[in-house]
Specification:
The chain has about 325 residues and is an alpha+beta fold. About 45% of the residues lie in helices and about 15% in strands.
């Protein structure tokens, strides 16, 4: 079954939450448009599963493991387990995509099997954080099996899981060969884990008075290192990211309740309604009341109510951190 949505359910650590019903075959096939997400951005998140991604149209900026990549129409990327990443539509027009998010055990089988030991485990433990592919013949071993697997998921004929497993095995074998000689993934995970700790702390304290010092202490780092990590992995400062989290939390309430806008602003940590409206419009392009009207009238927009408060979209980068309001 193909999933199509415009929201991203995550836990307080920004770990993507899988859909129900994937216990036997832990693979999600996704088809959507980056432009449909709030502010045209799939927010920063991570998952324990591997991800394969293809952009069908437009141009997107991918931020993966603290690095920025530009993906053009027809291009794609592989994202390893546990790596923080996001996608933002660049330029105008639609940005349709397809992706697989799947447990490596689909290919590796039982722990200790030859498939697990020789092919999957080395990729998880020592493989690259990500690989980006352009649409050229040398990369056919990535794109052709991807399309075969996606078609199998769409049709779901008897035994389609075997076809999907075979296609994914081809892709991971290709990725393993491509990734040889690249920098290993694990050393960067220490820094990324600190970022995840700070994101979790922010999600739990959105409505409170927050300072950079408090954010830094949540991951046992100094304020300077806190700023550096946010800039590296999230392309903004900690207070700017906090305000974006608060805006998304407010968007969720605007779409799902009839609470007064002023109450929502205060509950989400904004000191004044005017500052809330300013920040909200900077991120979404509309006022809180305009957003509520659109979200409550359109089922597609309503999907944002299911996203976690920490899953924040990023657009309109600001040169300076603003106070939390």
């Amino acid at each position: 079954m193909i999933r199509s949505k415009a929201f991203l359910p995550t836990d307080p650590c920004d770990c993507e939450q899988p859909d129900e019903g994937l216990e036997l075959f832990d693979l999600a096939a996704n088809e959507g448009d980056i432009r449909r997400y709030v502010a045209g951005s799939i927010p920063p998140h991570w998952h324990r599963e591997l991800e394969l991604f293809i952009l069908l149209g437009g141009t997107a900026q991918a931020e993966i493991g603290g690095k920025v990549f530009r993906i053009e129409t027809g291009g794609g990327c592989f994202i390893n387990t546990g790596v923080l990443h996001s996608f933002t539509a660049a330029g105008g027009g639609h940005c349709p995509f397809r992706s697989f998010v799947f447990d490596a055990g689909i290919v590796g089988g039982m722990p200790g099997s030859v498939f697990d030991v020789r092919y999957v485990r080395p990729l998880l433990a020592e493989g690259p954080e990500c690989l980006v592919f352009s649409r050229q013949k040398d990369n056919d071993p990535y794109f052709i099996p991807f399309e075969q697997a996606f078609q199998a998921c769409r049709e779901e004929e008897p035994g389609y899981e075997l076809s999907v497993r075979a296609a994914l095995s081809q892709i991971l074998l290709f990725i393993g060969g491509k990734g040889q000689g690249t920098s290993v993934k694990r050393p960067a995970m220490i820094r990324e884990d600190r970022v995840k700790q700070m994101l979790r702390w922010l999600d739990l304290h959105l409505g409170e008075e927050v300072s950079v010092g408090k954010i830094a202490r949540s991951a046992s780092v100094g304020e300077r290192e806190c700023h550096r990590l946010f800039r590296q992995y999230l392309r903004c400062g900690p207070m700017e990211y906090l305000n974006r989290c608060r805006v998304l939390a407010a968007a969720e309430r605007l779409a799902s309740t009839n609470e007064p806008v002023t109450n929502i602003a205060m509950q989400c940590g904004f000191a004044t309604p005017s500052y809330f409206s300013k920040r909200f419009k900077q991120l979404t392009g509309c006022t809180p009341r305009e957003y509520r009207t659109t979200a409550q009238e359109s089922p597609a927009q309503k999907g944002v109510t299911e996203s976690a408060a920490g899953s924040v979209c990023r657009q309109n980068k600001q040169p300076e951190d603003n106070p939390s309001g």
